[in-house]
Specification:
Elements (H helix, E strand, L loop, with lengths): L11 E3 L3 E8 L9 E9 L2 E6 L5 H10 L6 E9 L4 E17 L12 E7 L3 E3 L1
Antiparallel strand pairs: 1-4, 2-3, 4-7, 5-6, 6-7, 6-8
Length: about 130
């Protein structure tokens, strides 16, 4: 789910992660122990893959960035149990924008599904 974009389902999603920098410091008079404090937190880019379709909404969003307009959107990665038609898990991300798009590879000798890839850079993620 991405603000205002109805893409449908994705066949693959990766990059749901966050890392907090470790700042090592020593206290005066205690030269044998290193204290470890949390520093800044960075978020891994989210990579989405889907089978090629007629929808151009994600491409148009990426094209805005190419032309110098960054339209940040909030969204969610949602996992569904299709048998029960119920939501299993959700991760909400904020202030995302498409930093990379990779089109499908075509091979006339194969019968693989044509897959588009979009990488989203964002400023935070939380498990809902």
């Amino acid at each position: 789910e991405i603000d205002g974009i109805a893409q449908g389902t994705f066949i693959e999603c990766s990059g749901l992660g966050a890392t907090t920098e470790v700042i090592e410091t020593r206290e005066g008079g205690d030269n044998t122990t290193v204290r470890k404090l949390p520093g800044k937190t960075t978020y891994t880019d989210i990579t989405l893959k889907w089978g090629l379709s007629a929808s151009k909404e994600l491409w148009k969003w990426r094209e805005q960035v190419i032309h110098g307009t960054v339209a940040r959107k909030n969204g969610s990665v949602v996992v569904y149990d299709l048998d029960k038609r119920a939501e299993v898990a959700r991760w909400n991300f904020v202030a995302a924008w498409p930093s990379k798009w990779e089109g499908a590879a075509f091979n006339a000798k194969g019968n693989d599904i044509a897959v588009d890839t979009l990488v989203l850079s964002h400023e935070g993620i939380a498990r809902a």
